[in-house]
Amino acid sequence: MAGGPLRRLAYRHRWIYDSVTAVSSLPLGGPARLRRLAADWLLAALPPGARVLDLCCGSGEAAAPLLAAGAQVTGLDIAPRALELAGRRHPTLTLVQGLAEDPPLAPASFDGIQLSLALHEFPDQERRQLLRAARRLVSPGGRLALVDLHAAGPLMHLPQQLFCSLFETETATAFLALDLGQELQSCGWRPLRHELLAGGALQRWLAEPLPPP
Ligand SMILES: C[S@@+](CC[C@H](N)C(=O)[O-])C[C@H]1O[C@@H](n2cnc3c(N)ncnc32)[C@H](O)[C@@H]1O
Question: Is the pTM of this model over 0.85?
Answer without folding.
Answer: yes
